[in-house]
Design a protein that fits this description.
The protein is an alpha+beta fold. The protein folds into 2 domains: about 1-40; about 45-255, no CATH class. The chain is built from 3 helices and 10 strands, in the order H-H-E-E-E-H-E-E-E-E-E-E-E.
Length: about 260
């Protein structure tokens, strides 16, 4: 009888311990789900913690000047290795330099690109942009004409959106900026299919300038929309305006 009571007490103790552990596991799982849900549904997100203000000077360079550098970087890379026409991300690192890396949207179809990004590196990505140069538009003779040309193309953009790790970034329509007159150089076999040369341009665009991300894997999804019913005809090369670039681009970013 004594052995039976000891055996019963032992099994009762085991049962109690199992129940306690089950409650802990459920509590932990529920907490994780709750935290993730709160993160994904954070409608009061402070965007200033994630992106640079359009009036700021990241790394002591103005926001507008960084967008000029984006165009100079993009046009300097020959067609064969240009990240704008890369469907996988294998050319993400082409001509990139710290402290800012440049990202592009994709042309004529959605893509997913996987990129390794160095730590402490900011990211500047176009959310649709436009540019007019004397090389592409030889009929234009003045800076003001270039400026009006870039604006007329960018006015075709009717919406921009982006998410970072599942969080929608608000008020991106406020991040539109036009540059001063700047130079860029086209190499041989350039993406404009023009003779190698240096020219002057003005650019106008919607941008997303992301502060350095913590180490780990991050997902960035970006897209812009254009007015498909517009009667405006865009001259020049397909690369200089928003038409055709209004497709979802997904970046899997491994920050190391």
């Amino acid at each position: 009888m004594r052995n039976f009571l000891l055996s019963t007490s032992f099994f009762s103790l085991i049962l109690i311990l199992l129940l306690i552990n089950s409650v802990d596991i459920v509590s932990i799982s529920t907490a994780e789900v709750s935290n993730n849900t709160a993160f994904l549904n954070n409608t009061s997100l402070d965007v200033s913690n994630l992106v640079y203000d359009i009036n700021s000077n990241p790394f002591n360079v103005s926001y507008a000047d960084w967008t000029e550098k984006w165009w100079q970087w993009s046009y300097a890379i020959p067609w064969a290795t240009n990240p704008s026409y890369d469907d996988t991300g294998k050319y993400c690192g082409e001509n990139q330099n710290a402290p800012v890396w440049f990202l592009t949207l994709s042309y004529n179809h959605p893509v997913t690109r996987t990129c390794e990004i160095p730590q402490n590196t900011a990211l500047l990505i176009t959310l649709l942009n436009s540019e007019c140069s004397y090389a592409e538009f030889p009929s234009l003779k003045t800076e003001q004409e270039l400026r009006e040309c870039a604006k007329s193309m960018q006015d075709l953009v009717v919406g921009v959106s982006a998410t970072l790790d599942g969080v929608s970034l608000p008020n991106l329509e406020n991040y539109r900026i036009q540059t001063d007159l700047f130079n860029f150089t086209l190499p041989e076999n350039n993406i404009l299919n023009l003779t190698s040369q240096t020219t002057q341009a003005v650019a106008d665009g919607n941008w997303l300038f992301i502060k350095p991300l913590p180490p780990g894997t991050h997902e960035l999804i970006a897209k812009g929309d254009v007015n498909s019913t517009s009667k405006i005809e865009i001259e020049g090369n397909q690369y200089d305006g928003p038409i055709g670039w209004n497709y979802t681009t997904t970046y899997i970013l491994h920050v190391k």
